[in-house]
Backbone:
C-alpha cells in the first residue's frame, strides 16, 4: 500500500504563486513509481495537470497539460519521496481541488483511471 499526503493549497490572487507538495509513504513505494498531479474544478471532470513518470533506472520524464505549460513546474525529490508542483501566474480557472497520484506501472499514462493511489486533495482557489 502507498499513502499520499498533499499540502500547500490555499487562496491566492490572480497572478500569484503557490507550491503544492505531496509526500509518499508505504512499504511498497519505490523510486520506480510514477507520480502525478490532477485537479477537479466544481462541476467538471478530474483532469491531468502534470506528471513525473519513471522511464527506467534513475530516469524520469516530466509532462504537463497544455493549459499549464510555462506556468506550472513539477519537481520530484526521490530522496524525500516527494513531488511538488510550483504554480506561477495563477488564473481563476486554475481554481480546483488538486490531487496527487501515484502508480507502479512503468507504462502509466496521464489519465486518472490509470493511477492506483491517491491523496485526499488540497484546495486551490484563485481570486480575480
Residues:
Amino acid at each position: 500500500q502507498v499513502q499520499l499526503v498533499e499540502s500547500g493549497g490555499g487562496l491566492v490572487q490572480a497572478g500569484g504563486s503557490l507550491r503544492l507538495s505531496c509526500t509518499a509513504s508505504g512499504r511498497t513505494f519505490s523510486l520506480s513509481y510514477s507520480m502525478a498531479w490532477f485537479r477537479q474544478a466544481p462541476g467538471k471532470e478530474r483532469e491531468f495537470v502534470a506528471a513525473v513518470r519513471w522511464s527506467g533506472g534513475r530516469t524520469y520524464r516530466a509532462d504537463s497539460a497544455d493549459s499549464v505549460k510555462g506556468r506550472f513546474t513539477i519537481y520530484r525529490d526521490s530522496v524525500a519521496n516527494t513531488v511538488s508542483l510550483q504554480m506561477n501566474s495563477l488564473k481563476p480557472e486554475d481554481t480546483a481541488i488538486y490531487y496527487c497520484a501515484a502508480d507502479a506501472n512503468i507504462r502509466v499514462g496521464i489519465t486518472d483511471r490509470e493511477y492506483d493511489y491517491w491523496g485526499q486533495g488540497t484546495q486551490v482557489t484563485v481570486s480575480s
